[in-house]
Amino acid sequence: MDTTSRLLMLLEVIERGSFAKAAESRNIDRSVISKQISRLEDELGVRLLNRTTRSFSLTAAGAEMVKKASELRDLLSDTVRLAENYHQEPRGTLKITSSSIIGKRYIQPVINDFQKRFPQVEVELRLDDRLIDLVSEGYDLAFRVGEPKDSSFIARKIARNRMLLLASPEFIETYGMPKQVEDLKDLPAASYSSPSKRIGGIRYRNADGDIIEQNIKSVFRANDAEVLLMKAISGNAYVLAPAFILDDEVKRGDLVPILTDIELLDYSAVYAVYPHRDLPVRTRLFFDAMREYIGKDIPVWEANIPDFDTMYKG
């Protein structure tokens, strides 16, 4: 291992917060990381880390080296992207991360077609609702609901994220068809909840143009969209859901849109996120393929909902 590799290893240790996590990501033993950092200190002739049995901290020299290592990683990435852009045929590995439902329903079909067109591109798809660090974990492209908080990333909106209220025929038979939003406040609801996102109310615009949030009585929470739909289909709860999680549940009559005359607000939007503006050819081509598949004006998932364009003042 050369000095460059050891510097990048030091950077990974700092970004992940421990030797153990850096070792796990590289699938090597923790002692290997420790030895390589010690060799780096010997090569540079300075102490980079103050270590104890349970923790470590950067020295002043270590902080400067980490800064240079970050610049070095960016330079190496730029060099690789520049070289790849000279290839007539895209190749290499494309690493993508996405929430589970978007990945399964919309990204995987594009991957299948993309690899038929460009067989020299390998694709690694990670389905995870947890937000990950694209740079430190080496991802080229992420598809997320909501604009990223990290302003250093490039984010491009690819679709609206329209919401709708759904209940099963059994639920409506039990509780009656609601006439106004207030009718829902004491009825059992299923809602999305994860460490990073939580839906706790129905946001809509009233006749005066004011934005109102009606609290819901959530009796079931889950971080999986398909589970929420199953709960609603069971008849035990209604659900406030984004349109992109639906397949043909409305067409089959398993779920019925309710209160369709109110103006529901979008829940953020769906974004494609990438760490650098200068995309490699394979990443740019895949992004273009996703845009084409989803649709420019009306996203493909809205076609699963009959007459959706007339609902919720969309």
Name its key features.
314 residues, alpha/beta, 5-stranded mixed sheet, 9 helices, WH-like_DNA-bd_sf
Describe the protein in words.
By secondary structure, the protein is of the alpha/beta class. It has helices spanning 3-16, 19-26, 30-44, 60-84, 100-117, 169-175, 225-233, 249-252, 281-294; strands spanning 49-51, 56-58, 92-98, 121-127, 141-145, 154-160, 163-167, 188-192, 201-205, 211-215, 217-222, 238-242, 256-257, 263-264, 269-274. A 5-stranded mixed beta sheet has the order 4-3-5-15-6, with helices on one face. It has a 5-stranded mixed beta sheet with strand order 11-8-12-7-13. Strands 10-9-14 form a 3-stranded antiparallel beta sheet, with no helix packed on it. Helix 1 packs across helix 2 and helix 1 packs across helix 4 (60-84). It is elongated. The mean pLDDT is 89.
Number of DSSP-assigned strands = 15
**How big is the Rg?**
24 Å
**Mean pLDDT figure:** 89
Side by side, the strands of the main sheet go 4-3-5-15-6
TL;DR of this structure?
Belongs to the LysR transcriptional regulatory family. The protein is α/β, with parallel strands linked by helices and 314 residues long. Helix content is 36%, strand content 23%.
Layout of helices and strands, plus pairs?
Elements: H1 3-16, H2 19-26, H3 30-44, E1 49-51, E2 56-58, H4 60-84, E3 92-98, H5 100-117, E4 121-127, E5 141-145, E6 154-160, E7 163-167, H6 169-175, E8 188-192, E9 201-205, E10 211-215, E11 217-222, H7 225-233, E12 238-242, H8 249-252, E13 256-257, E14 263-264, E15 269-274, H9 281-294
Helix pairs in contact: 1-2, 1-3, 1-4, 2-3, 5-9
